[in-house]
Each structure stands twice: as structure tokens, then as C-alpha cells.
Specification:
Length: 416
């Protein structure tokens, strides 16, 4: 494949994020993307800030466009989820949002560079390694200069080849996004059923059950730690982290990985010390960002995470999963969380005394929701395999090892 060597600054423009005072933010308006919203190559919409709608014209130079490549220029060192250099491609509803400070949007200004292909350059291992070498500052506060980003050298194939590569890789991205939306809908449907039955007490046959002191007759308050063990993870030490998979190692989940489900480091089996997760396990974070509940993880896990092990059949996995997400349990975790920059909420475990329904009602909920959890695990597994295939394919398409046209024929089942 014929390529043309170029310097990024010759074919791109860099748009800095804007700086706003906390007093400027409002409850609703133009969403602002901060570096904290950049997670696992995507933009997390769960904790956005907003600026007034009438400020659009004043700040429009910071508006994001479809396929912009956004890079965090300030952060920690490369092994951390908050690393400087982490990046995302702007898609869908993220376009037309405002970009905050400590990040830069990279945009093509040349007909020789497709904007989508620029995003793939930013995703490449070569570019990510380059950023890790040009960052300056202490390990916990690295800054990447815009001039350094402009100096990155890359090889550009013909524009038609660029667009074909983008088409192939974005097809994987679209499948992953579709599965993510399906997972979200499944989780929401199960949560709505849990809330209807166990929060609003509109369970099957509720019309015939007396309410005593605000609780249906026959329901009992139980100590959760009598029914469930909270198994703490391990901390191997950063010197023992592995950046790539090696035989006998496990993915290592830290609290920041519970949402993305894509750990970026590994640890050898000797450091796992039996703190291992299977995909069906339920976990909750009780240190750092406390109260995150997740399933579908496979590997070793850190001390900030607890694995929930059911030790009494009076509670089942489906009920436990959504109980941990309930306002009662989340409120208990937040009430007993201590610390300023890093919170610790292990103390909350002994205070978790939820009101539990009769066994037959809990079992009925389990029979309805277990298939939903299983479907979520299947979709999560599909996404993991799709992401692995995409990430293996990308460098091969970009360096010409796999010809995009040939890949097109292969992908359509045509023998060549």
C-alpha cells in the first residue's frame, strides 16, 4: 500500500477546550465534555455539566464536531485510567457539545486526510505510545504540549483507502454501540421491575397483603452480611502491573474499570492471590468512587472492590444485583463513606439491613430477571470479542498487512 509521510500539524488544526468558572454552570443547557467524561474511548454522559443556551455564540469555537478526535492533555501517567493522552472520537449526540479545558480537539484541514481516519490515527498504538513519551511533569500531573502533538509523524494512504479503513473499523464500533444500548435497556427494564415490586410494593397479589408500619406483612429486615460475604480484592503494587497480556496473567480490574469493563493492565497469577472474578459475579466498589455495581467481569480485582458471595439461599443473584443498586444500599454506602479525595465505605457493610420480601416473591423475581442478566452477559461477551477483533485489525489495515479491498471480499465470504 502506497503511503505519504506527513507531520500531523501540516494537515490538522488543534482546538483547545474552554475554561469556565463553576458559577457559570447551570442545571440544563449546552452540555460540556470534561476530561473526566472521557472513559474507555467514549464520552460518558452520566455526569455532564451545562452552560446557558444563550452562551452558544460566545463559546462556539469550542463546539465539538462529528468525528473530532479529542485528547486529554493533562492527567496522570499512562497506566492509569486518568492518563494524559487518553482519547475519544466524537460521535452522535456528543457532537455540538462544548469541550472543556485540559483537552484538545484535532480536526483535519487537508483534503489528503479523512477526519475519520484521523480519529483512527489517534487510536493507534503508535500515536498513544508517542503521547506517553512527550508528556512532561510528575507522574500524577503530566501535561502534553499542543506543539508536541503537531510534531507527530504519520503515513497517509490514498484518501479512498483511508475511507475504506474507516468504514471497516466504524462498523465494529457501531455493533459495539448497539450492544451497549441493548444492555442499557435490559438493565433498565429489570430495575423498573425491582422498583415496582420491592420499592413501591406493587408486587403480584399486593392488593391482598396488609401494610404494617409502612411495610407489607411478612417482609423482614435482615443483616445483609449474614446472607452475603463481601470479599475484598488485592493490590499487587504498581511495580507488578503488566501493560500487555502474558501467559499466566489476568486482567486487573480497578474501580475505574467497573463501568468500562475494559481493564488496561494485567497481573501475574502469583499476585492475584485467589482474588478472581467470574463473569456471573456481582461486585461493588467501596473505595475511591464508591457504590459502583457491576457484573460481567473476568480476572483479578483490586482492594477497592468487593466480590459478593451468596452464602444463604434466602437471597438470589438477580435480587442481590438490583438491591445493591437500590437507593437504600447506595444511601448507606454514601452515608458511611469517609475521606476527601479518596473515599472509603467498607464500614457501610455492617449497617446494610434491608427489608426482604418472602422467599416465594424473591424467587419469582429471580426466575424473571436471571434470563435478563444472562442476556446482558452474552452481549458483554460479544462486545469484548468485537473490541478485540477490531483492535487487532486496525494496525494491520493501517500498515497494509491486510488490504482493505481484500478484507471487504473476505468479510463477505468471497474466497480470494
Amino acid at each position: 500500500m502506497t503511503t505519504s509521510p506527513t507531520i500531523l500539524g501540516n494537515v490538522c488544526e488543534l482546538i483547545n477546550g474552554g475554561a469556565w468558572q463553576q458559577t457559570e454552570y447551570v442545571d440544563d443547557g449546552i452540555p460540556v465534555v470534561q476530561v473526566s467524561n472521557m472513559k474507555n474511548g467514549a464520552i460518558d454522559f452520566s455526569d455532564l455539566k451545562f452552560l446557558p443556551p444563550n452562551s452558544y455564540d460566545r463559546y462556539k469555537k469550542h463546539i465539538l464536531r462529528e468525528c473530532d478526535r479529542v485528547i486529554a492533555t493533562v492527567g496522570s501517567h499512562a497506566l492509569q485510567a486518568s492518563a494524559a493522552g487518553r482519547a475519544t472520537i466524537v460521535k452522535g449526540s456528543a457532537a455540538k457539545m462544548l469541550l472543556n479545558q485540559n483537552a484538545v480537539a484535532i480536526r483535519s484541514k487537508s483534503k489528503s486526510l479523512d477526519q475519520g481516519y484521523l480519529g483512527l490515527i489517534g487510536r493507534s498504538d503508535k500515536f498513544q505510545f508517542y503521547l506517553s513519551t512527550v508528556g512532561q511533569g510528575a507522574a500524577n500531573q503530566v501535561r502534553i504540549a499542543l506543539s508536541a502533538i503537531k510534531e507527530f509523524k504519520c503515513d497517509l494512504p490514498p484518501i479512498g483507502v483511508q475511507r475504506r479503513i474507516v468504514e471497516v473499523i466504524f462498523a465494529y464500533d457501531d455493533l459495539i454501540d448497539t450492544n451497549r444500548r441493548r444492555i442499557q435497556l435490559l438493565e433498565e427494564s429489570a430495575w423498573l421491575l425491582f422498583r415496582e415490586w420491592f420499592v413501591y410494593f406493587r408486587f403480584p397479589g399486593h392488593e391482598k397483603v396488609k401494610i404494617v408500619d409502612g411495610v407489607p406483612e411478612g417482609w423482614e429486615r435482615k443483616k445483609l452480611n449474614k446472607l452475603v460475604s463481601f470479599k475484598r480484592g488485592v493490590e499487587p503494587g504498581s511495580d507488578n502491573y503488566l501493560e500487555t497480556y502474558e501467559q499466566g496473567s489476568f486482567p486487573f480490574y480497578r474501580v475505574s474499570d467497573l463501568v468500562t469493563k475494559s481493564p488496561t493492565i494485567f497481573v501475574d497469577e502469583q499476585y492475584a492471590k485467589g482474588a478472581l472474578l467470574k463473569k456471573e459475579d456481582i461486585v461493588v466498589s467501596l473505595d475511591g468512587s464508591v457504590g459502583i455495581v457491576s457484573i460481567g467481569l473476568e480476572g483479578c480485582y483490586s482492594t477497592g472492590i468487593r466480590k459478593l458471595v451468596i452464602k444463604n439461599r434466602k437471597i438470589n443473584r438477580a435480587f442481590l444485583c438490583f438491591l445493591m443498586k437500590s437507593h437504600y444500599i447506595q444511601g448507606m454506602i454514601n452515608a458511611y463513606a469517609k475521606g476527601t479525595t479518596i473515599q472509603h465505605a467498607g464500614e457501610a457493610i455492617k449497617h446494610m439491613n434491608p427489608i426482604l420480601p418472602p422467599q416465594n416473591l424473591m424467587d419469582e423475581f429471580g426466575e424473571m430477571v436471571e434470563p435478563v442478566l444472562d442476556e446482558i452477559l452474552i452481549l458483554s461477551d460479544q462486545n469484548q470479542k468485537l473490541a478485540q477483533a477490531r483492535d487487532l485489525l486496525l494496525p494491520r489495515l493501517m500498515n497494509g498487512t491486510i488490504d482493505p479491498v481484500r478484507y471487504d471480499k473476505l468479510s463477505n465470504g468471497v474466497e480470494v
